[in-house]
């Protein structure tokens, strides 16, 4: 497993939670705005300055967000 910075992993977990909330209550403007803000925060995070992530890296980050696991648990495997 790759190690992601804590703030990037936290933003991805928040993105996943917000996405689930929006799926349950579509049309909520505040949730759409939050999702948009978190998307930008994840996509333009300084962690990706070395180059855009490969699909496998996105998958791992998204999986981390879906599971809601602590970053330290995943990065020490």
Quick structural overview:
This protein is mostly helical. It has helices at residues 6-24, 29-43, 55-67, 71-75.
Characteristics:
single chain; 77 residues; mainly alpha; 4 helices; 68% helix
Give an account of the 3D structure.
The chain has 77 residues and is mostly helical. It is built from four helices and no strands. The chain has helices spanning 6-24, 29-43, 55-67, 71-75. It is globular.
Q: From N to C, what is the helix and strand string?
A: HHHH
Percent range for β-strand residues: under 5%
Question: Strand pairing plus helix content: what structural class?
Answer: mainly alpha
What is the CA-based Rg, rounded? 13 Å
Number of helices: 4
Total strands: the figure is: 0
Regions with pLDDT < 50 over 5+ consecutive residues?
69-77
Q: What fraction, in percent, of the residue positions are helical? A: 55-70%
The geometry reads as globular
Oligomer: single chain
How is the secondary structure organized here?
Layout lengths: L5 H19 L4 H15 L11 H13 L3 H5 L2
């Amino acid at each position: 497993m790759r190690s992601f910075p804590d703030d990037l992993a936290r933003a991805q977990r928040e993105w996943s939670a917000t996405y689930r909330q929006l799926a349950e209550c579509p049309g909520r403007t505040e949730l759409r705005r939050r999702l948009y803000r978190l998307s930008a925060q994840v996509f333009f995070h300084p962690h990706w300055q070395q180059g855009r992530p490969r699909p496998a890296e996105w998958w791992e980050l998204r999986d981390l967000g879906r599971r809601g696991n602590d970053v330290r648990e995943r990065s020490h495997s």
